[in-house]
């Protein structure tokens, strides 16, 4: 039985929600500096992170800097056609090798003292090299960071415990119909939100993401099938309600067939479940990916500190070659306006959330059944943090426990 058949079977069964006790998220998860530092080290410092797509550095010699985790990295499309990642730090005095966000060159030259590296990271030139006694170039290459590709997406990991394919787990097979290599970045936009990154992700997980479809002014959904996957990832599949399903061309909400978006090129061979439902994958720790017949939307939340989050939203569309970008087409313009509204709405909703979490009487967030995805996601974080933070900061900790100090 395919995973889509399994999803349909579960959704057709009567819901047994409503009797569960709420699960509590302790306040300290959202305000404590030490908890944030533990996340930086154990979550963001030890997992695969999505940095962008190959089309952003599509040709050999192109490079881009990346600092979403505050660690300065450099992504390079090397002349041997391999995508590599390095710490953006010269091996002489630690100055940035590259100072501009994007560029193209067959060599990378530090502006401080002109130490020069090729695109494989090897040190190839040192001015006045005779003045550096016992200098061994092979020992002064740029320091590499693990970098791997999945369907045109670039992931990096400072301390990999497993390869990218193992980390992605079953999501690789389930999303195999998405022709990712043929996608191209259509639009990227960001917003800085004065709230802890877990509150931002929680807002996104509170309701299914339902990007607009051309020709439909409103779209309704039914209850979701939410499943935890290996690796801490989550799959959320939400059928449309009867009215929306019929408007899209379905016989009913569970008759999943291949659909097209009016007036827009379709992703080839896309699994019907991605065309006929609001489907989102949450790739731990901070990437949400949603699908439509004509494009893919991602949200990524990056903690700048324990009280501030950078939220990125990016649309990917079928490659349009040498033609003008379709971003100005009415259907895409509508989607991009919707996307900006989502970013602005989250920022408005959470503008006072961080201060509320600091109130002395506030013991945390209570998660009911409708927050199941947020609970599962927090539990996936706990799997990485449980050895380095006190038990009373973990998901489900009971109110009134003694607040133990975080480990240094």
Describe the structure.
- The protein is α+β, with helices and mostly antiparallel strands.
- The protein is 23% helix and 26% strand.
- It has helices spanning 3-12, 28-31, 33-44, 164-168, 171-174, 197-205, 242-248, 272-276, 330-349, 353-357, 372-385; strands spanning 23-26, 49-53, 62-66, 73-77, 83-87, 102-104, 107-109, 116-118, 123-125, 144-150, 153-157, 183-193, 225-228, 234-239, 277-283, 287-292, 295-305, 308-318, 364-367.
- It starts with a helix and ends in a 23-residue tail after the last helix.
Strand content: 25-35%
- CATH fold-level topology of the largest domain: Naphthalene 1,2-dioxygenase Alpha Subunit, Chain A, domain 1
Number of helices: 11
Radius of gyration: 23 Å
Large-scale geometry? globular
**N-to-C CA distance:** 48 Å
Any idea what the CATH architecture of the largest domain is? Alpha-Beta Complex
CATH class type of the largest domain: Alpha Beta
The overall pLDDT average reads 91
The structural domain count equals 2
What order do the strands of the largest sheet run in, or round the barrel if closed? 2-11-10-5-4-3-6
The description of the largest β-sheet is: 7 strands, antiparallel
* Element pattern in H and E: HEHHEEEEEEEEEEHHEHEEHHEEEEHHEH
What's the multimeric state?
A: single chain
Helix share, percent: 10-25%
Structural class: alpha+beta
Number of separate strands: 19
Low-confidence stretches are: none
């Amino acid at each position: 039985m395919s995973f889509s058949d399994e999803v349909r079977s579960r959704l057709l069964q009567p819901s047994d929600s409503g009797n569960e006790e709420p699960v509590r998220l302790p306040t300290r998860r959202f305000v404590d500096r030490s908890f944030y530092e533990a996340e930086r080290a154990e979550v963001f410092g030890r997992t695969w992170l999505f940095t962008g797509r190959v089309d952003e550095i599509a040709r050999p010699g192109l490079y881009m800097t990346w600092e979403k985790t505050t660690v300065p990295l450099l992504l390079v499309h090397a002349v041997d056609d391999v995508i590599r990642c390095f710490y953006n730090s010269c091996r002489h005095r630690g100055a940035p090798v590259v100072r501009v966000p994007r560029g193209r060159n067959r060599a990378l030259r530090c502006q401080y003292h002109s130490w020069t590296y090729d695109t494989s990271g090897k040190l190839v030139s040192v001015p006045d090299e005779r003045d550096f006694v016992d200098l061994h170039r092979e020992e002064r290459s740029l320091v590499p960071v693990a970098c791997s590709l999945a369907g045109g997406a670039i992931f990096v990991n400072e301390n990999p415990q497993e390869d990218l394919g193992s980390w992605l787990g079953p999501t690789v097979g389930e999303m195999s119909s998405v022709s990712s290599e043929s996608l191209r970045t259509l639009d990227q936009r960001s917003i800085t939100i004065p709230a802890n990154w877990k509150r931002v992700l929680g807002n996104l997980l509170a309701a299914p993401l339902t990007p607009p479809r051309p020709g439909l002014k409103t779209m309704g959904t039914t209850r979701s099938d939410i499943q935890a996957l290996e690796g801490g990832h989550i799959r959320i599949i939400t059928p449309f309600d009867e009215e929306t399903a019929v408007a899209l061309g379905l016989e009913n909400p569970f008759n999943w067939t291949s659909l097209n978006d009016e007036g827009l090129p379709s992703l080839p061979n896309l699994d019907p479940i991605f065309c006929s439902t609001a489907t989102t994958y949450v790739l731990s720790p901070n990437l949400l990916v949603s699908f439509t017949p004509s494009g893919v939307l991602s949200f990524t939340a990056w903690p700048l500190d324990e009280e501030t989050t950078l939220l990125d939203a990016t649309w990917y569309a079928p490659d349009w070659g040498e033609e003008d970008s379709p971003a100005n087409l009415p259907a895409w313009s509508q989607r991009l306006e919707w996307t900006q509204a989502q970013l602005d709405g989250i920022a408005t909703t959470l503008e006072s959330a961080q201060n509320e979490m600091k109130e002395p009487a506030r013991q945390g967030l209570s998660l009911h059944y409708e927050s199941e995805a947020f609970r599962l996601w927090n539990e996936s974080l706990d799997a990485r943090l449980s050895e380095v933070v006190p038990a009373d900061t973990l998901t489900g900790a009971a109110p009134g426990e003694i607040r133990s100090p975080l480990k240094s």
